[in-house]
Amino acid sequence: MTEPTPPSVPDHASAPPARRRRWIGRAVGGAVAVTAIAVAAYGSITSAAAGDDIHASMTIIAPAAAGGGWDGVARELQQAQKANGLVNNVQVVNMPGAGGTIALGNVSVLNGQANNLLVGGTGLLAATVQFDSAATLDDVTPLAVMVEEYDVIVVPADSPFQTLDDLVQAWKSDPRALPWTGGGSFDQLVVADLALAAGIAPSDMTYISSDGGGEAIQALLNGTAQAAAGGYPDNIDQIESGRLRALALVAEQPLDGVDIPTAADQGYDVNLTNWRMLAAPSGLSDEQVGDLTDLVLESTATPEWADARARYHWTERLITGDDLTAFLKEERSRIERLYEEMGL
Length: 344
Fold this sequence. Notes:
This protein is an alpha/beta fold. The chain is about 45% helix and about 20% strand. It folds into two domains: about 15-150 and about 275-340, D-Maltodextrin-Binding Protein, domain 2, CATH 3.40.190; about 150-265, Periplasmic binding protein-like II (D-Maltodextrin-Binding Protein, domain 2, 3-Layer(aba) Sandwich).
């Protein structure tokens, strides 16, 4: 499930002044719109954060509205912790806005308050780059990557493109004439990565941003777009019903039980995944970080979490400690490069 994200609007110092002024105006308006939500949610966080016993109470912050991928992670984690007595009182707080950076900014000031967990992932890291946010993942304490979700490249069932190579060759002949769509900024990054692998300048591609996977599917079916990248869970029903044709799975390895070849197996080295992580506030002791990491690993080892992975088509990927630090650094560099290639 792809998290809802703001429109792809450049926010770099190198942008022309007129474009920067337009973005500043839109950013101020967006900030005003989410202020009431953020203030209310922040109050919920601070009131629930009384005390520091992580097994007595925990607040899990989903940096998006209810119903999205980050919210799903938060609520499934809540259920796993409650059902197994890992935490006595667990609440989920939704704090949408600016691709997750509103929530990130609020958590970044909860210095030393260990009983708060922030859900994040590829989309949140991308938003800190795209919008040059004041708060970054350096301002919180990343604990673990837990799962990843794969995108799939799809076309309408009546499309003339039978394989990924068919699609790419047509795209290369006139990149601007073949419009793509996707459910969010992560999907746009996947398309940009595919463009690079195919020898196409991402700045030349035509990408129509849709508000979620459902809208992206409609754009395909009504002919607005000719191809799309989207989360496999968002597209599986349409693929199985025969309305969409899956050309490639964007993953390093084939997915068990899924008869879709990977892009890499078809000669295109594209494997950006939509991973999901948990972070805590900064200012924690090594012991607190260790205890929180253990809690996350215990939560992901429960039957409830295993059931959630199956229902959401998540693939387990546990990364902690120094490996996590290195992973996040590599992912940030990769995403920065993709935005630069797109000219954003």
